[in-house]
Amino acid sequence: MKIIGVIPARWASTRFEGKVLALINGKPMIQHVWERSKKSELLNDLIIACDDDRVIVVAEQFGAKTVLTSKDHASGTDRIAEAIESIDGDIIVNIQGDEPLIDHAVVDALAATLVEDPSCSMGTAIKVVTTKKELKDPNVVKVVVDGEMNALYFSRSVIPYNRDDEDEVIYYKHLGIYSYRRDFLLSYKSLPKSHLEKCEQLEQLRALEFGYKIKTVVTDIETIGVDTQEDLARVEKLLS
User: Fold this and answer.
1) Per-residue model confidence as pLDDT tens digits over 112-144
2) CATH of the domain at 51
């Protein structure tokens, strides 16, 4: 079974253009992601899928394989679907290009989930929410799961709603890393953007709304997505 890691790297980020090449302790952010992902014990190959030649030039300088994709993709999943059309592989792991603190153990856990469960088409990582600030932040996506740890719903709102203010409610947040079977991913890209996806602006809701299951993997490893210059400064301080 061949497992491919793909890092979608979008130059034209709305909030922070060119962030994937922003320097963190002297290295472009995408290089930090690539180097950490290369430590994976399960990936057979690792590719950067980007929409701009500037990213390709830098990525190839530090030794990465690259694929140039369309600038018009609405999500990283759509970009990866294009990138793997001509690449052999059974399981694809979507490693966000703006998470320079990604841990290879999470990559391996998501790949292993699909290896161990042939009925599973898609997996993603979640983590217990530990602060009220995170819980109330709409940029921190919350998720509720069933008894078998399949995702029931993702939302920017607080879910579940704790009506009686119970102390034992566990809240999970979604980490933006996925694994997919190749056949599912190629089918997914042909699905229209769903109603719930448009409402919440969360691409994973497209899979749920069309009846696919998403298996979740709980991790205690923290990661930070870089969406602003402030996020970049925070990550640089942590890495220092």
Assistant:
1) 999 999 888 999 999 999 999 999 999 899 999
2) 3.90.550.10
Per-residue pLDDT of 142-190, as tens digits, reads: 999 999 999 999 999 999 999 998 888 999 999 989 999 999 999 988 8
Q: Are strands 45-50 and 65-68 parallel, antiparallel or unpaired?
A: parallel
Nearest to 207 by CA among 175, 166, 179: 179
- Could you tell me which of 153, 55, 42 has the C-alpha nearest to residue 92? 42
pTM over 0.85: yes
Q: How many domains does the chain have?
A: 1
Do the strands 3-9 and 91-94 form a parallel or antiparallel pair, or are they unpaired? parallel
Asked whether the beta carbons of 216 and 124 are under 8 A apart, the reply is yes
The whole domain housing 70 covers 3-239
